[in-house]
Amino acid sequence: MTDTTVEIVLFDGVDELDAIGPYEVFENAAQAGADLETSLVTLEETDIVTASHDLRVEPQGTLGDPDLLVVPGGGWTTANEGVRAIVEDGVLPDAVDERYAAGATVASVCTGAMILAEAALLEGRPAATHPVAVDDLEAHAANVVDERVVDDGDVLTAGGVTAGIDLALWLVEREFGEDVASEVSAKMAYERGEVFG
Length: 197
Known about the structure:
This protein is of the alpha/beta class. It has one domain: Rossmann fold. The protein contains 7 helices and 11 strands. It has helices at about 15-30, 80-90, 90-100, 115-120, 135-140, 165-175, 180-185, and strands spanning about 5-10, 35-40, 50, 55, 70, 105-110, 125, 145, 150, 155-160, 195. The strands form 3 sheets. It has a 7-stranded mixed β-sheet, sandwiched between helices. A two-stranded antiparallel ribbon has the order 3-4. Strand 3 and strand 4 (about 55) form a beta hairpin. Helix 1 packs parallel to helix 6 and helix 6 packs antiparallel against helix 7 (about 180-185). The chain is globular, with a radius of gyration of 15 Å. It starts with a strand and ends with a strand.
């Protein structure tokens, strides 16, 4: 049996914690015995991604065909940066839709929900996002709910920034059991929030 593959897609202007929080959860889960492999990836090959607070991150490869694709947020309120630029470009939303159509579970953190909305994955679904994007997400026909994590089966969304940690812990519990998730949350000294769905 092969590992569950998790890919967290990075782009210039991505919020650091949206990506690194879930990455650390998944890595800790693997150390706790979860059968998963996590990578930080980009859509196209690049040496360095510059995140929203100027952290420079070296990706571990390009987007493949993961079992779980995590789409972080960052930069929705700034023209030509981060999620705003990604949505206007349309290439990553198309790639997300392709992975979803091929059977991947897709999850977003914070304003990454706008990328899922552009990929037409949230229409009629309950979804969470950062407060700055609620009106825009509602305009995409998502049923926006004020929750930290929303599990709608093969599409999950999380609210602002730190909710990505809750999202990842929930996915670990859902896929690998409560014991593994509890071990990870204890190791990270993180008190988990409730999950909607």
